Amino acid sequence: MSLWDAIVIGAGPAGIGASSLLAENGAKVLVIDEAPGPGGQIWRGVEDVSDARARILGSDYLAGRDEVRRLRASGAELSFETQAWRVEPEGTVWLKDSHGIRRERGRRLLIATGAMERPCPLDGWTLPGVTAVGGLQILLKREGMLPGGPLVLIGTGPLFYLFAAQCLAAGMRDLSLIDTAAAGAIVSALRYVPAALTGKGPSYLIKGLKLLWMLRRAGVDIYNHSGDLRIKSAADGLEVHFRMREVEHRLSASHVGLHEGVIPETHLPRALGCRMHWSEAGGAFHPHRDIDLQSSVAGVYIAGDAGGIGGATVALLEGRLAAMGILTSLGRPIGELLLRATRRDRAAHLAARPLLDHLYHPSPAILTPADGVLACRCEEVTCGEIRAALRAGCAGPNQVKAFLRCGMGPCQGRMCGMTLTSLAASTHDISMGDAGFLTIRPPLRPISLGEVADLVEP
User: Fold this and answer.
1) Is residue 77 left, alpha or beta, with left meaning phi > 0 and alpha meaning psi from -120 to 50?
2) Residue 162 belongs to what H/E stretch?
3) What's the alpha-carbon Rg for the chain, to the nearest Å?
4) Within 10 A of 235 (CB to CB), how many other CB atoms are there?
C-alpha cells in the first residue's frame, strides 16, 4: 500500500482538472477510473476519436483533447480499468483491476465520479430496444454507431436535444422527439431569465436555441408537453403511445431512448458518510460542500457533477478549485489571485443553471410511476408493491429494501433508489429530504469471494 498526497477517483473533466493541477504543483497523485482512458462520460474516447466522428460530436467534446494531453504530461499516476469498491474516511481506497485487489492510501481524497442519468421508470421501459439516451451517446462516441431503423427519443433536457442534433449530424433522419417538459415550465422559469443573461449564461442559451433551430430546420417531429407515455412491443419492433393536448398519438420505432436529465452519482459520498441535502431545483440529493469543495468528512473533497450538475466546463473549474483547496491543506497554497479568478469563472458558467433546472424539471410521471411499472429492475419489484409495503408500515426506502429486496441487486439501488425515495415521500406525504435514501455500503462494485480470500495472508 502506497501513500499518496491525493487520490482522485474519476478521470472526467473534474478529475482531469484536479489531477493536472495537483501533479504540476508537486503533489503525488493517483488517478483511478473504470474506463480504458481519460475523459469520463463527457469526453469519452477523445484521445482516439476520428476527425469524422469529432465533427459529429462537436467542439465542446473536442475541447477535452488539450485537457487530456495536460493530464498525461502532468506526472500524475494514472490507473485505468480500475474500480474503487471500498473507500474509507481516513483515506484508504480498495481497488480492483485485472491483477486483483489492492489498497492505496491518500492524505486527501477527491471524488470526481460525475453524474448518472435519472432513471426513467415508465410502462415498457424494460423492453428490448429501450435504453437511456446516455447509453446511445456512449455508443456513438466509442464506436461511431447509431441504432438502425426509426428512433424515438422520450424525455427532456439539454443532453436530450444535444444527442438529437448529433444523430442528425451522423446522418440519421428517421428521428422523432417526445418532450415531456411541463406546459407551464416556461412561465414558471421566467423569473430566472435575468440571472441567465449574466456571465456565460447567454452562450449556453444561444447554444440551446441553435440546437432547436437545427432540429426544426431538418423537419424533425417534436411533440411538446406530452404525457401518459407507454411503450409496447409490436410485430416490427416497438410502439410508443402518448397523449398531447388531449389527443392520442402512436409512433412506431425500432429503438427508444429515454432521458429525464442527469443527477449526481452519490453512492461513494454516501458510503463515506458525507452529509447530503435535497435540492428541489436539481430534483436530486447533493452532498454538502464548503467553499473549497470539501465535504462534511474532513479530507474528502467532491468536484464536478458528483456535487451538483453544472456541465463539463464547470466540472473542470471545480476540479481545479478542489485541487487548490487540497494544496492549501497540504501546506502548498497556489495563490489567491488564481483562486479568485477560478471562482469567478465557475460562477459565470453557472449563471444559466437555475433557468435550465426549472425548464427541464423531470415529469411527475417519472417521479411517481403507476403501480404496474417496474421500479427495481434487478429484483423485479413494481411500484404498486412498494406502495403497498409503505402503506403497511414501512417508514422509508431502507425498510422497503428489507421487505422487498429493492436496492439489493447488482446496480445497488442506482436504478431504483430515487423511485423509492419519491414513492415514500408521496405515500407518506413528506418531503423528499425527510424520506431519505438507501444506506450505501461496500462493496460499491461486485467482487468475488475468491478475490477477498486472496487478501488473507498466512
Assistant:
1) beta
2) helix 158-169
3) 22
4) 6
The answer to whether the bond into 397 is cis (omega within 30° of 0) is no
Measured in degrees and rounded to the nearest 5, phi and psi for residue 165 equal -65, -35
**64's grid cell:** 477535452
209 three-state secondary structure:
helix
* Secondary structure class of 185 (helix, strand, coil): helix
Secondary structure of residue 16 in the 3-state scheme: helix
What are the residues whose beta carbons fall under 8 Å from the beta carbon of 378, sequence distance 6 or more?
Answer: 408, 409, 410, 411, 415, 416
**Cell output for 329:** 491543506
pLDDT digits (tens, 9 = 90+) for 229-287: 999 999 889 999 999 888 899 999 999 999 999 999 999 999 999 999 999 989 999 99
Query: Is the predicted pLDDT of residue 455 greater than 80, yes or no?
Result: no
Q: Tell me which amino acid residue 154 is.
A: I
208 closest CA partner among 156, 167, 257: 156
What is the rounded distance in angstroms from the CA atom of residue 112 to the CA atom of residue 269? 10
